[in-house]
Design brief:
Helix content is 39%, strand content 17%. The chain has 16 helices and 14 strands. The protein has helices spanning 32-42, 48-51, 65-77, 86-89, 93-99, 101-105, 111-121, 127-146, 208-221, 237-246, 258-263, 326-334, 337-350, 360-384, 394-402, 426-438, and strands at residues 26-27, 150-157, 160-161, 170-172, 177-180, 183-187, 192-196, 225-230, 249-254, 281-289, 298-306, 314-320, 406-410, 415-419. The strands form 3 sheets. Strands 7-6-2-8-9-12-11-10 form an 8-stranded mixed sheet, sandwiched between helices. A hairpin with a 4-residue loop joins strand 4 (170-172) and strand 5. Helix 3 packs across helix 7, helix 3 (65-77) packs across helix 14 (360-384) and helix 9 runs parallel beside helix 10 (237-246). It is elongated, with a radius of gyration of 26 Å. It starts with 25 loop residues before the first strand and ends in a 6-residue tail after the last helix.
Length: 444
């Protein structure tokens, strides 16, 4: 029967099962076809040729920039964050199927080719800046689908630990580690609009102006109503002035000082409780405050929390130009915490802190590729997931959808990808693909 020609693994616990490898036919990433379908419908990676420029020339170029970008993004979304995985992945049936017809017939790019793309092509000329522009074009397409005209932006910094002699890495006393200190901007849907890699020893707000101003102006020019949230590190007069100039509403944490403390002195005394229950007592105060470095007085909201088992109250200050009630402003600011959750999701699911190249610019390119992969996964999550699995996190999508086992079968005129029906049923997958087909993006 031909069994002698195949190397089978004999199993001691049963003689009814035989196991053997068939790497050219079997894949663990069958769900990538849903990612590619979404990508194709929205015209995302198809923008590559419009934004990126390369200096390669000659007749031996086999992999164009679009295919190379797809391989870099899709592999990261599937959990392969290292370039050295490319040699094994280039023959993976699912990856070949989603990269394009040339890759399906032959193979994906090798480790050397992908490495050259990420460390040389992306870092030459203005390609890194163009990646940012392409990302904003992606976001514009998604905004058109959502039909929103009001955007909430969260700006925050984070830590990317390093374990070698990477250029630009430095010890950061706040994080207590040798790291990079990247800056991020998210919207209320969890899309990352922009990311900037910075040396590890810079202040949290370093380079904030050139980072956030283009994003704000982009939305204002399009007629969006914009709100900006940030923590106390970004409590800077120039940021307030920029927002006021552009008509952006802001809610930013303000560091405590003696003048502010004196302003709310009456709230710091723990009130006498008239009931027997030991409950948290929360007090608010609204006042106009002007620091010496400010050009005018601005609205500051104080929140004072008296916990029953604590001697001193917890005090927080927020500066804002919103005209909402104090409690509503504080509640709105507290939602900024979801930004930190999205950063953690990027770290834990895609491992975007793995910036192991020696040169700073190469690591910056890697971070931007991780962001593109994260956003593509988030678009899938927020736009087209069926109701039954709408609550799934990006990690769950990776493990249960993207990591769907499949077998690629070649016929005379086409290929057939047979998907395993385990975590995702045929009915759910059909609904997902139907939702993708319904999308009607408009370029920004």
């Amino acid at each position: 029967m031909g069994e002698a020609k195949k190397h089978c693994f004999k199993l001691s616990f049963t003689d009814k099962v035989k196991a053997y490898f068939k790497g050219s036919e079997i894949t663990s990433d069958g769900g990538l076809i849903a990612i590619r379908e979404l990508d194709e419908k929205m015209g995302l990676t198809a923008l590559t040729e419009d934004y990126l420029v390369e200096k390669r020339f000659g007749r031996n170029i086999q992999h164009n920039l679009t295919e190379l970008l797809r391989q870099s993004i899709y592999s990261r979304l599937a959990g392969y964050e290292d370039v050295n995985d490319a040699n094994q992945l280039r023959n993976d049936p699912a990856l070949r199927a989603v990269l394009g017809e040339r890759a399906l017939l032959k193979s994906g790019s090798s480790e050397a080719t992908v490495g050259k793309f990420e460390t040389e092509i992306l870092t030459e000329g203005k390609n890194l800046e163009k990646l940012d522009e392409m990302l904003m074009d992606w976001i514009a397409k998604v905004d058109s689908i959502r039909g929103v005209k009001e955007i909430v932006l969260d700006m925050d910094s984070s830590e990317s630990p390093v374990y070698g002699g990477q250029e630009g890495s430095a010890y950061n006393g706040y994080f207590g580690s040798k790291c990079y200190h990247p800056l991020f901007c998210f919207n209320q849907y969890g899309d990352c609009l922009k990311a900037k890699l910075r040396p590890g020893n810079v202040h949290s707000a370093d380079e904030w102006l050139e980072f956030i101003e283009p994003v704000l102006r982009n939305y204002i020019d399009k007629g969006f109503k914009v709100k900006l949230r940030a923590d106390a590190a970004f409590g800077l007069p120039k940021l307030y002035e920029l927002c006021e100039e552009l008509g952006v509403k802001y809610v930013i944490r303000l560091k405590e000082n003696n003048c502010l403390t004196e302003e709310i002195s009456e709230l710091l005394v723990k009130p006498v409780q008239k009931n027997k229950d030991n409950k948290l007592i929360t007090l608010y105060k609204d006042c106009m405050y002007q620091a010496k470095s400010w050009d005018k007085a601005r609205r500051v909201i104080a929140k004072v929390e008296h916990y029953p088992d604590e001697l001193f109250p917890r005090v927080g200050f927020i500066i804002t130009n919103l005209k909402w009630r104090e409690k509503k402003v504080v509640k709105f600011y507290n939602k900024r915490g979801t930004c930190e959750q999205w950063i953690k999701e990027g770290k834990n699911t895609l491992n975007w802190t793995k910036l192991s190249c020696k040169k700073f610019k190469e690591n910056e390119a890697r971070l931007k590729l991780f962001i593109l992969a994260y956003d593509l996964g988030n678009f899938l999550r927020t736009l087209v997931l069926p109701k039954k699995i709408k609550h799934w996190s990006l990690k769950t999508i990776q493990l249960k959808l993207i990591k769907t086992g499949a077998r690629l079968i070649k016929h005379a005129r086409y290929y057939c990808l047979m998907l395993a029906e385990v975590a995702i049923t045929e009915k759910v997958f059909a609904e997902l693909m139907k939702n993708i087909r319904k999308l009607n993006p408009v370029s920004g």
